[in-house]
């Protein structure tokens, strides 16, 4: 059953994954790991390193598809952890599998598991960390507690959103503390857990080390452009310097530090609790949300400590998402919410499935499987991927106009797709891609003394560019300008 809890979701995600590069962050996270580059803040070193190995070992189909599938595998492992948590709390195998399959095809989980997302790997680490902590709370060796904190550190190295499970892990370590583990006997495991946590975070050393190597070997094409700074895909923020590393780790360009501090205000905890309830309803429907609420009560009566850890992990994981305004896809910060519902759904089933209870048990399993099948039927469009979708079309549209050694400047949304074509799959060979929303035409004219510089803009937002000629119309939302020398 455990293997089915992984295999069925993973196969669904792989079958619904696109074979073409996306746009926005998706295209970047499909491409950066393959070239062992540096992505936008916070760099996501575990995701990049794991993706480099995966994309070169699993050398089938397109690179974009490989990275999409890696996310699907990560979420499949997280689903297996949900199954494991339900089993720890006494659920039967069939009940745990039915609830896990329902969770795996909830809209938020499925839509993000079928595309490249750093949050998917962080979600996997967080799910495994919670499972490890609950194993320890149920009497397993201290190694499980240490593993929980090691996995949380690795999760932060995949995406810093994993930071928000720390309060739940610390609470679990406190309320699950064994009798007789005081003084020196308690400090040793705590120090081991701290060391394991820091070891995971230490992967961020990849950023300055890799940046120094790339600059020393002229690997970043934007090094030929004075004033360009670190180029996307290769050397975002140029973190070999302290200033660049601070920008990369903090995400200060998006005012992230101020919002992170604001999220520590306890008043936002209530907003996160409301978001937790709303997200549960959005993923499972009204009937499912009611069933989960009943399951929380039953789970609390059976083991309030474990229930409290699960609920805290789900709610604190939403605090940052409810106050951060610079995120167009806030749902990718909320993957833990439907995951945590699995053991609560299983709590509806009686411990002993005999007589009338056996009928209730079978009915619950069938209800879970029916809900999962209904979700699949509702989202069959996830399997449809027309040729040239995503960012492929803009790569093909630009290619006839921009030749080798030309510079293409555009906003982040399309720049990542073009960078994928230029640096990853070679469909835009030897082009230099610059992501810049500021339209610094004076700087572009300097570059144009040695090479042609194109600027790709949305004509609805930019009617004209002084010092540049309208060169080509790609579609109603993409106008290509050539900077005059």
How would you describe this protein?
Helix 3 (45-57) packs across helix 8 and helix 4 (63-88) runs parallel beside helix 17 (336-346). 60% of the residues lie in helices and 6% in strands. It is mainly alpha-helical and 485 residues long. The longest helix is centred in the middle third of the chain and has 36 residues, at 267-302. Strands 2-1-3-5-4 form a five-stranded mixed sheet. The protein contains 21 helices and five strands. Among the domains are: 2-204 and 365-383, no CATH class; 392-483. It has helices at residues 2-15, 24-35, 45-57, 63-88, 93-104, 107-113, 118-137, 142-158, 166-175, 184-201, 206-216, 242-250, 256-263, 267-302, 304-316, 319-323, 336-346, 356-378, 392-398, 412-423, 441-447, and strands at 407-410, 432-435, 453-457, 468-475, 478-483.
